[in-house]
Amino acid sequence: xxxxGSWSDSSRSGSSSGRADPGSRGRLFVLSGPSxxxxxxxxxxxxxxxxxxxxxxxxxxxxxxxxxxxxxxxxFVSRQQFAELVAQGQLLEHAHFAGNHYGTPRAAVEQxxxxxxxxxxxxxxxxxxxxxxxxxxxxxAVLIFLAPPSFDELARRLVGRxxxxxxxxxxxxxxxxxxxxxxxxxxxTVVNTDVQSAxxxxxxxxxxxxxxxxxx
Length: 216
Ligand code: ADP
Ligand code: 5GP
Prior knowledge:
Elements: E1 28-32, H1 39-49, E2 54-55, E3 59-60, E4 75-76, H2 79-87, E5 91-97, E6 100-105, H3 106-114, E7 119-122, H4 125-133, E8 142-147, H5 151-161, H6 166-181, E9 188-191, H7 195-208
Helix pairs in contact: 1-7
Adenosine-5'-diphosphate (ADP) is lined by residues 35-41, 157, 160-161, 192, 194-195.
């Protein structure tokens, strides 16, 4: 896959909650939290409740897991392609996490926001900090931290997912200790004790961050 290309848009659009309002700028939501806390799982539920929310598909150098689809879960690229994207300024934010690189393609996010559509990024903490610091974008972004009920439960979920070998899991748990300390930098925290309540909490926060926004 070329390092530049067709990532400026995708079919993940809609018009119900999660707004598409050409008259005003869309809102940028950032969901972060340690690996294994349940971000993807909870987001699956949120996106079914808010089909109008546009989800940014990240670029990564991580190898594809079984079942993952290029262009849906991630855009899977080589290290060289990733470095080119960074050099060309095509990533809104990027980070090195537990041995792999991850980044958010800038153009699609900016296009969606400009078109009045709400945008959601699911990224780790270093990336969330970069979004917060981004001129013209960060101050208005809504940063949400998904927290585990406990560190032990986080470790159990990571083991239970079964997608990493032990060394990779350890790297992720090490990163998690630092990431948990970053919670206070976020605008909101949602604890993922059960998926349904966490998803409902997120929907409420997102709908509530602009008065009168519809839910469900
Ligand atoms: P992340 O995207 O944050 O890395 P995942 O969504 O992959 O995390 O979830 C990690 C594991 O935890 C998965 O096996 C998922 O099924 C499980 N999980 C997610 N949320 C919960 C929950 N509330 N209770 C129990 N298990 C959960
Ligand atoms: P995973 O390898 O489990 O899919 O993701 C590892 C971590 O990278 C997760 O915390 C996930 O949220 C984060 N991540 C995914 N995409 C991006 C991205 O574009 N930028 C950053 N900074 N982190 C990302």
